[in-house]
Amino acid sequence: MERPEALIFKGKPAKIMIALSDKKQSWYISSLAKAAEATYVFTSQFVNKCEEAGIISVEKHGRTKSIALTEKGTKIAEEMTSILDAIGKGPEQQQPPPQKAQ
Questions:
Q1: 1 with 49: CB under 8 angstroms?
Q2: What is the mean pLDDT of residues 25-33?
Q3: CATH code for 4-86?
Q4: How far is the CA of 79 from the CAs of 5, 17, 74, in angstroms?
Q5: pTM for the whole thing?
Q6: What is the pLDDT of residues 57-78, one digit of tens each?
């Protein structure tokens, strides 16, 4: 199993963790992938590894899985946000990705 710090301090994993800290939204693999600008497969694999590490909990609802941070994961996401804010890369400093023309 990968060390948790090696798992989450990367671009897309960090975006997933920070997105999950938004408790107002229900998170699914597809919505997390979109928020992190990652593929569905990458996001699914990351969620599985984080679940094994006790950072994320997954609850199955038929064919879908709702995803949330555990208490441990919430603490990690809060610390990550603080660190990213301190170096100017936190959610407040990030600009939303450009919208694609449809």
A1: yes
A2: 94
A3: 1.10.10.10
A4: 12, 11, 9
A5: 0.73
A6: 999 989 888 999 999 999 999 9
The residue type found at 88 is G
The residue ranges of DSSP E strands in 1-102, in sequence order, are 56-61, 64-69
Q: How many residues does the chain have?
A: 102
- CA torsion angle for 14, 36, 73, 93 (degrees, to 10)? 60
Share of the chain above pLDDT 70, in %: 75
In terms of Cα–Cα distance, which of 34, 27, 18, 25 is closest to 73?
Answer: 18
The rounded distance, in Å, linking the Cα atoms of 57 and 69 is 6
The dihedral built from the CA positions of residue 39, 26, 58 and 14, taken in this order, carries a sign that is: positive
Give residue 8's pLDDT band: very low, low, confident or very high (50, 70, 90).
low
